[in-house]
C-alpha cells in the first residue's frame, strides 16, 4: 500500500517511506522493461526458424553449423558452413534507463498517485480574478443586445434562457444593495455575463448595527415630513412598460438625469459632534481604528458615539425592557412549538419537525401504566409548550424556556437633564407608620 503524499508529514520516517516507494517503482519499471525485452527476443527467434521442408542447421563440433541437404539421388552430404556466413541472430540491445527517464517515470507515478488519493471535491470552485472593466462596457453590451432579432445573436438566446433561473438571486442582490434614502447615489461592483444575459451586484452591504438603526431612526422623522410635503413621493402607473415596448437605455434616459436630493436630518455640530462628520456616509468609519478594516465585520465605538447613536435611534427602539412581556414568545418557545407540531395562539405556524409521528409509538400511556395521571379535558397549547415534559407524551427536541424573570424596576425618563439615579414620583413612597 502506498501512502498519498499529502498524508506524509515532513520527517525522517516520511523520507524513508518515500524512498522505499520510489525504489519499488523503479523495480516495477525494470521488471516491465525486462519482460518487454524477453518478448522481443522470442519474436526474433521465431522469425529465424526456417519454414517446413527447408534444411535445418546442424550443430558441428568445430563450432560451425552444418546444413543438411537432401540430394536428388538420395545421397545425403553434409557440408561445413562457417557461422559467419549465416550471420548471427540479431539480439536487441537492452535500453539503459538513464537518470532523466527514472525521474520522469517517478514524476508520472507521483502524479497518478496524487490524483488517486487526492481529496475529491464535489462542488469545487475556483474564483478566477477578473480585471475591473469600466461601466460603459456593460452598457454597450446591453444596448447592443436590445434587439435580439438579429442573426448574430441567435446563439445567445440559449444563454439568456439559461440565465432565467438565476434571476431571483440577481433581484435579491439588487434589492439589498439599493441606495438608502439618505444616499443620493451609490456606486457598486457588478459581475456580468459577457453576453449581457444576467448581472449580479457583487457586494455585501455590511453595516454597523447601532449606526444603521440610528440612520433609520432619523429617517422615521424625516419621512413623516416627506409624506406631509410630498416632495419625494410620486404616483406611478403600473405596469410602467408595455409588453412590446423596448427597454429604456440607461445612458440615454437615466445617466444624465440629476438624482433627487438625499433625505437627511440636520445634525447639530455640538450636540451630535461625535457622529456629525460620518453619520450619513455609505460605509462610515472605514479606515479608522473603530472598525477592523475593509471587511467591516467588527466594530468598537466610544461611549459618546454610542450615546449619540442611541439618542438618534430613540424613535425605533422599544420601551419594553421587561423580559416577562415576551413569555412564550421567545425563540425557545418557538422551537418547542415546532417540535410538538403546535402553534402558539397569535404566534407563527411551522412545518412539523417530526412528520412520521404515530400515537401508537408512545412509550407509555393510560393503558399500560397504572401510575399515569389521566387528564380527560384537553390541555391548552400554552401549557404544553410551557411544560413540555409534563403535558406531552413524546417531548422530542423541545427546549425549556425561562418561566419568570425578576421584576424590572427601571423607569425610562423623558427629561434628559435628570440625573442617572433619582427617585421617580411614580414609585409610591413607603410611609414610616406602616413600616
From TrEMBL:
GO terms for molecular function: pre-mRNA intronic binding; U1 snRNA binding; U2 snRNA binding; U5 snRNA binding; U6 snRNA binding. GO terms for biological process: spliceosomal tri-snRNP complex assembly. Residues 130-281 form the PRO8NT domain. InterPro entries: PRO8NT, PRP8. One of its GO terms (cellular component) is U5 snRNP. Pfam families: PRO8NT. This is Pre-mRNA-processing-splicing factor 8. It comes from Bactrocera dorsalis. The lineage of its organism: Eukaryota, Metazoa, Ecdysozoa, Arthropoda, Hexapoda.
